[in-house]
């Protein structure tokens, strides 16, 4: 087969024949991509799509941004090394310069960095090993609704039991705590609910009979991404920082999806004005190429030489692209742009929510937004007003795709449509996305009403 001249059906058929049953995106985004630039991708049949998935938030500057491409081309043209394990190079040192420049000064002044194998889940595994080595303790405090990756340690941090069952449950010495999800609040919504959620954590650490003991660390996402674009309240984050500091529990913030401007600050923890002990980074920090790091306070640096490694931790092209991307985000104030564009998109999404009872919640920060679909007439087994409707969300995703918009789902029952456009998205493109989404919701709701006879 001459793939460049093949159509979607031929390429997808080949993929189905040869790839594992674990493949996911092609099942509900049935196309193959021929080319991509900025906010758009073009499939093998020549159809164009707005890409609000953007590599699950990896492409902060969009596809093939000239600034990142030029940086990679300079490495290739100058016969620079492409792979150096953890041996240093000018490209690596420049990347670290840019990375530390992007961090708040208080954190950067005491920071160490560990390069990991290339995926975000590898950074999470390294962070778990780091705090266990530094403290001598074993257990980890994680949160319901979290997603930290698909390797065994990262999986153990997730609350979703069905994901872990096929691999034996992976207990992993993890205590799962309630995350302050305002639409389905574990202790009630608002400030009082956040206060009770904080008190719950503090009581566990103070109570010698709680079963928690002395944790090695706490890990949380400032905005839960795969969990449905659920932002943690700033006051709650400040309380988690106070509690972990007072109990000598290292605080790890998973900024793999939120980091580098996505939420309207360079790093999402800056919204709360806190300083973590460790931050895991991947996705955008590699400029679209595989790169993962843990940045942590020097007080945790108790590793012996060789205690953590990874063959591809010396990816020089990713470091060049990452340096270029970090510099571009900072020089062009793209965090502020994400905040501004996010407000514009959120306003449109909230207008859609006003029209349809089946839209239960619009939430998120910056250009990390989610729209949760619900069944207005159903009964939810847990807290919250109405049950999530994953079937309707799937119908909306399909209707978006048919109209030239790529979105992905997350959250409980996969009922939340998620928006992760590049930070370079224009106002006009935001308006187009919102218009397509509104049409898709209307079409999906009409289809559901026709199928069930129940108004959504």
Description:
- By secondary structure, the protein is of the alpha/beta class.
- It has two domains: 181 residues, Aspartate Aminotransferase, domain 1, CATH 3.90.1150.10; 265 residues, Aspartate Aminotransferase, domain 2 (3-Layer(aba) Sandwich).
- It is built from 15 helices and 17 strands.
- The strands form four sheets. Strands 4-12-11-10-7-5-6 form a seven-stranded mixed sheet.
- Helix 10 runs parallel beside helix 11 and helix 13 packs parallel to helix 15.
- The protein is globular, with a radius of gyration of 22 Å.
- It starts with 7 loop residues before the first helix and ends with a helix.
- The relative contact order is 0.15.
- The model has no long low-confidence stretch (mean pLDDT 92).
CATH superfamily of the largest domain: Type I PLP-dependent aspartate aminotransferase-like (Major domain)
Unreliable spans are none
Count of discrete alpha- or pi-helical segments spanning 4 or more residues: 15
Which structural class do the helices and strands define?
alpha/beta
Strands side by side in the biggest sheet: 4-12-11-10-7-5-6
Alpha-carbon Rg, integer: 22 Å
CATH architecture of the largest domain: 3-Layer(aba) Sandwich
Work out the strand percent.
15-25%
| CATH class category name of the largest domain | Alpha Beta
How many domain regions? Answer: 2
Q: End-to-end distance, in Å?
A: 46 Å
Would you tell me which CATH topology of the largest domain applies? Aspartate Aminotransferase, domain 2
Report the biggest beta sheet as strand number plus sense, adding barrel if it closes. 7 strands, mixed
Percent of residues in helices: 25-40%
Overall form: globular
Annotation, overall tally of beta strands: 17
Tell me, rounded to a whole number, the average pLDDT: 92
